[in-house]
Design a protein that fits this description.
This is Regulatory protein Spx. InterPro entries: Arsenate_reductase-like (IPR006660), Thioredoxin-like_sf (IPR036249), Tscrpt_reg_Spx/MgsR (IPR006504). A hairpin with a 4-residue loop joins strand 3 and strand 4. The chain starts with a strand and ends in a 7-residue tail after the last helix. It is elongated and about 55 Å long. Helices cover 38% and strands 12% of the residues. The protein is of the alpha+beta class. Strands 2-1-3-4 form a 4-stranded mixed β-sheet, with helices on one face. The longest helix is centred in the C-terminal third of the chain and has 14 residues, at 116-129. The protein has a single domain, classed as Glutaredoxin (3-Layer(aba) Sandwich).
Amino acid sequence: MTVTIYGLECKSTRKARQWMKKNEISYVDRNIIKEPLTIGELQAILRMTLDGTEGIIATRSKIYKDMNLDLDELSLLELLEIIQKHPRLLKSPIIMDEKRLLVGYNEEYIRQFLPRKTRKIEWLKWQTKNNLLVEG
């Protein structure tokens, strides 16, 4: 599965890239300023969110405040067109593959992108370290 990191040049996006490299996970890096997301790509991201547009919009960003947007007054297409023109409205990074999505960098949640075998090995190591293995 191909992991894609959509992001701005910010600390969180750099941390996500470093984490992927450290864990030897290949990824595609996409600077959303230099290459804005298409409407179709934005729709694909939204299909995977739990919170819809609220999950991906950076409501604390300067551009969001300057634009004085009322998300409830916009149609979905209008909002997607605005995001396409103003990619800084998106939280960064947005990390995804075919099955998983993570918005923002979180040391715990990014682990979902580790291969299952790697997660299982780490879980067994943790159990052994903490004497939690159950004999059966």
